[in-house]
Amino acid sequence: MIPGGVAILDFGSQYSQLIARRVRELGVYCELLPGDAAWSRVLRMKPGALILSGSPFSVYAPGSPHPAPEVFETELPLLGVCYGMQLLAHHTGGRVEGGHAREFGPAEITPGDGSILLRGLDHGLTAWMSHGDRVTGLPPGYTVAASTQLLPIAAMENPGAKRYGVQFHPEVNHTVFGVPFLENFLFNLAGLSPNWNMKAYAVEAAEAVRRELGEEGHVILGLSGGVDSSVVGALLHRAVPGRFTPIFVDNGLLRQGEREQVEATFRDHFHMPLVVIDGTEAFLGQLAGVSDPESKRKTIGRVFIELFEKAAAGINGATHLAQGTLYPDVIESVSFRGPSATIKSHHNVGGLPEKMHLRLLEPLRELFKDEVRELGRELGLPDTMVDRHPFPGPGLAVRILGPVNRDDLDLLRRVDAVFIEYLRENGLYDRIWQAFAVLLPIRTVGVMGDERTYHRVAALRAVTSTDGMTADWYRMDPDHMARLSSEIVNRVPGVSRVVYDISSKPPATIEWE
To answer: What angle, 0 to 180 degrees and rounded to 10, lies between the N-to-C axes of helices 198-213 and 369-378?
Structure first.
C-alpha cells in the first residue's frame, strides 16, 4: 500500500477493474473497495483522491448501493464515473432521473466553456456511454463541464470543492481521450504523483514480508513453475533467503521439460533450497478411470495437499505458507456484487494453512497479472518464465478429454511442444495470451503413405486476452495453421488430424475442461 493513491469505490460496474488498471498504468497506486465500505476502511488506505465507479443500479432504487456519508463531506478530490456522477448529484442537492432515452455506445463530447476537467480537449471527441438514468439538475455550486447531442449534462464540476462527475466511461478504449482525461484529474486536479512502479514495490513488498515473518518466521511455498508462484518465490528469496523453502510437486501432468526448467531456474540459478517431490505415480494412480472434469480437479487437489503436507512436515520451524493470490482474486471477493458463482474448482492449497497451523502470506495480492510479470523481471526471473502463457493447476489432465493415462499424456506433451515451439520460432507466441493443445477422445480415419490409419485428433487453442476473464480466439493466418497441422501430424506418431478452436469466452471457457 502506497499512501496518497486512489481509493476506487466499486458499485458493481463491469468496468471497475478497468478503472484500477488505467490508474496504475499512469503510475498511481489504487485499490478497489466495496462501494459501501465504512469510511474508516477507506481512510486506512490513506488515499489522496476518490473515484466512484459505475453500476447497473439506479441511485433511487430500493437496495441500490450508496457510499458512507463521509464520502460527500471529505475534502479529498473526488471523481464520479457514470453511476458515481449520479450519486454525487443525488447526495449533494442535484437531480437524477430515469425514463429518458437510454444511451449505450459512442457519443461526441462537447467540453463546456472554461471547464478545467476537460481542459485542453477538442470538441467532437468520442466518449463511451452506458447509462439509462441521467443527471437533469446540477447540485449547487456545480457547472456543466461537457454535453452531447442527447445529454445536456454529460459532465459536471465544482472545482472549489474538488468534485467532478462524468456520465461517460474514461477508462475504456472507446473513449479516445480517456488517458489524457485521467491524467488531468490525477495529476493536475488531484495533485497526485506517479510513484507506483515495480522497483519501489519490490522494496516495499520485501520489507512487508520481513515484518510479517518477524525475527524467527520461516515461510514455505508450493512452487508450480507458473508465473505467479515463480514471482512469489523470487520475492521471498530476496526478502528472507535463509528462511524460505520452496516445494515443487511434480504431478506427472506437466508440459514437456517443465520440471527441468523449474530445477534449473530455482535450484541452479537462484540457489534456492528447492524441495522436489515426484508424485507422478500417486497422481496417475488416483486419476485412473476418472473422466469427469470436476472429479479430476478435486482428485488432483486432494493428492497435491497430501504430498505437500508430507513434504512440509519435514521442514523445521515453518510458520507461514505463501500463495500467489492476485488482485483480481481479491477484487472478486470484495466487490459489491459479491463472489461470483463457481464455474470450476481450482487447484490450490486452500485448506492447508489452518490444517498445518500456518499463517497465510500473499505478497502479490495487490498486483494485476501484468504487474506480476513486471515484478518478476525486476526480481531477475528470465523472460521465458515471466512471459510464459498461463497453465492450469491440474495441468494436462484437463486438456485430455476423458480419463488420463501415461500414453495419452506423452502424446499430448509432444503435440503441445510442437505447437509452442512453432509459435516461438515464428514470432507468434508473444501475440497470444494463452495457447495449448487438447487431446480429443476420438479417432478418425486417415491415409499416411499407402496405409489406412485410425489415429487421434488434436485440437489447438489460442486466445487473446488481458486477464482471462474474457478472451477472443486468435485469428491465426491460414498458412500458419496449415504448416502447424503438417508438422504435428508428421512429428507426432498417433495423431492424424488437427483442428483449430474458434470459440471465444464467453460463451466458451478458455480451457476445454
So the answer is: 90
Residue 355: the pLDDT is 60
Catalytic residue among 157, 171, 371, 378: 171
The pLDDT of residue 4 is 82
**Active site includes 269?**
no
Other residues' Cβ atoms within 10 Å of the Cβ of residue 454? 9
Q: With 80 as the cut, is the pLDDT of residue 93 above it?
A: yes
Q: Which residue has the cell 471477493?
A: 333
Angstrom distance (rounded) from CA 451 to CA 506: 41
Comparing CA positions, the residue from 32, 19, 45 lying closest to residue 186 is 19
Task: Identify whether the C-beta of residue 411 lies closer than 8 Å to the C-beta of residue 495.
Answer: yes
Alpha-carbon distances, residue 301 vs 188, 218, 294, 306, 510 (angstroms): 50, 24, 11, 9, 20
Q: Which residues pair with 128 in a beta bridge?
A: 106
Does residue 448 or residue 460 have the better pLDDT?
460
Do you know the residue count of the chain?
A: 513
Average pLDDT, integer, range 449-458: 84
Q: Which of 91, 131, 169, 320 is catalytic?
A: 169
Q: Give me the amino acid identity at 68.
A: A
Domain 405-500 has CATH 3.30.300.10: yes
Phi, psi (rounded to 5 degrees) for 160: -60, -35
Q: Matching CATH topology for 6-189 and 198-386? A: yes
For 230-255, the pLDDT digits (tens) are 999 999 999 999 899 999 999 999 99
pTM equals 0.75
Q: Residues 499, 457: contact at Cβ < 8 Å?
A: yes
- Residue 169 annotated in active site: yes
**Residue 455 is among the residues annotated as catalytic for this protein:** no
Contact between 273 and 248 under an 8 Å Cβ cutoff? The reply is no
Q: Across all residues in the chain, what is the average pLDDT?
A: 89
* Every domain of the chain and the residues it spans: 6-189, 198-386, 405-500
What pLDDT, on a 0 to 100 scale, did the predictor assign at position 475? 97
Please identify which residue in the block is written with the cell numbers 432521473: 97
Q: Which CATH class is domain 198-386?
A: alpha beta
Question: What is the residue whose three cell numbers read 490508474?
Answer: 23
Best CA proximity match to 79, nearest among 208, 228, 173, 188: 188
Active-site residue among 30, 31, 82, 258? Answer: 82
In the chain, the amino acid numbered 431 is R
DSSP 266: I
CA–CA dist 172, 175 (Å, integer): 6
CATH class of domain segment(s) 6-189: alpha beta
Looking at the predicted structure, is the pLDDT value of residue 504 above 70? Answer: yes
Whole-number Å distance between alpha carbons of 407 and 98: 62
Q: What is the tens place of the pLDDT at every residue in 118-167?
A: 988 877 688 888 877 889 999 999 999 999 888 899 999 999 999 999 99
